[in-house]
Amino acid sequence: MSQSTAVDEKKNSVILTSNLFSPHIGGVENSLLYLAKAYQEMGYEPRILTSNIPRAGQAPLALSESVNGTAVERYDAQGKGMAPTVLRSFNNALKLYRRHSETNNARLFVCRYHYNQLIASLAGAKPTVYLVPGVIKFQNAPKYQQSAGLRYRLRWYYHHFMQLAALKRATHVAVFSKNMAAQLRQIGFKGTIHLTKPGVDLERFKPLPSEEKRERRIDLGLTANPNAHVFLCVGRCVGVKGFHLAIDALATGPENGELWIVGDGADMAELKEQSRKLQLEHRIKFIGATQTTETYYSLADTFVHSSLYEPLGQTVLEALASGLPIIAFEADDATGVNTASRDLMNDSHCVFVAEPAPVSLANAMRDMAALDQVSYESRSALNRKHAEATFSWQKLAQDLLAIANVKDLP
């Protein structure tokens, strides 16, 4: 272990943990980074504990390093020897968490994944706040997948029961939405549920004037149409994100509409084939995974939150901060849409579509593309102000300390 990541017992550390972290890309991964920055500013020494699972096709990640000034320590999730990988991973994670919990300098463990919460509790880590990213029974339900065979269903059950165990063993449980709290009750969790809100980086995600964004996206080769109205989807390319609905909607949506999909995932090939069959290849751009999503938020015109299930929606916060008008499906048990969009915004910030149908979505896209400049800029300014007034990583960092009853530093 290098000196930069060795445990310093004289400091008050906050442990932030999940199964994946940078260079992996996602809302949970980003939350660890921003919480670390907030805790540094508050005088704590944040440490991120995670696995060394690499991105597809890459070598395993370093077991220790510094990322943006925060010490990152990884347990070997592949390991060596005769034991099955899952047992090696479990043992390595247990030893890492136990080492940190036994130093007595960790004021708080914030866990963002059920596996890590369970291991941390078994290692004796206290207090822990399990900041639930999603309820697996609903988020990973087979009905939201393009294809879900027996193997998928077995993994779904396995992770569902592991999450139940993590909830039971956590010192405290927190969620980002009333919607998610209700879901925890539905799966039988009877403990106290704390409600808090995430933050968004207002410096990284910010609006650009309409004329400037049109010029820049042409200069960057993102579109050749100066009059294009660019709709943006951001997230994993999996069925639950509803990108297939956005593609179908574009086919009958505004004639000057273009769609950018930022992210990768298991359904990428199917989505590309769908766009080809609809003869939309020239109007759809698959950006792939990127560390600079803010570029595409700043250059798009409207954000399409096409998710069928979303426990919160970090991408919604990024769209609000970027001053993008938003289109989203209305949550409704009858239509199968289960999102927390109403926890984040109201009709002033978003056009809510009554049903997850391409025709309905296409109508909303046409209406948005037809807005005059004054109406568009009014919506944009309102969404940016809402993000500035409502979502703060510093407030979340303070909330988590308060939930765990951690006293302020002397």
Automatic annotation (TrEMBL):
An example Gene Ontology molecular-function term: glycosyltransferase activity
Organism domain of life: Bacteria
Glycosyl transferase family domain ranges (all copies): 224-332
Domain spans labelled Glycosyltransferase subfamily 4-like N-terminal: 25-204
Name this polypeptide is given: Glycosyltransferase
Organism from which the protein derives: Pseudidiomarina terrestris
